[in-house]
Write a structure and sequence with these properties.
Largest sheet: 3 strands, antiparallel
Distance between the termini: 36 Å
Number of helices: 4
Helix content: 40-55%
Shape: elongated
Length: about 170
Amino acid sequence: MMVSSPFGGGRAPQGLPRLPTPPTGWPIGSYATYGEAQQAVDFLADSEFSVSDVTIVGVDLMLVERVIGKLSWGRVLGTGAVSGAWFGLFAGLLLGLFVNQGFALQLLTGLVLGVLSGLMFAAIGYSMSRGRRDFSSASQLVAGRYDVLCQPRSAEQGRELLAKLALKPPPATP
C-alpha cells in the first residue's frame, strides 16, 4: 500500500481518496485501544469478511509526551558524540571506498570529524534552550477510543461478527 501526499506525487490505492477526507460508514464497534480495534478487524478478515469496507478511526486525539529522563551537559554531549560518530563512520566508509588512499585513515578521519561535529551541534542546540527544557521525552499521538466503521452494504454482517468476537472468552495469559 502506498501512502500519497495531498500535494501530489504517488498514487492512492484503488478506491481511496487522494485528498484528506473524513471517514464514511456506520459504526460496527468501538474499542478503548488501537490493539483491540486491530484485533477486531483481524477477526473480520479471518471470518472472510470484506475488510476493504472497514476503517479504523481514532476519536478524541491527544498528543502524549512521556518524559524519559533529565538532560545534563554530559548526557547531551555523549549523545551528540555517539550520533556524530555513526555519521562520521558512514562518511569515512564512503570516502574510503572511493579514494585510493588509506582506507583506515579515511575511516578514522570520518570518525574524528563526526564526533567533533556531533559534539558541536549538540552543545549549540542545548545551550540555545537556556535551561527551558532540561528533559528528554518521546511524543505519541493517541486516541481516546477507536471506532471501527463499515460501509452500509455490509455493516450489519460486520456487527454480527464483532458481537461473536465480544462473546469469546479472552485468551489465557501465561
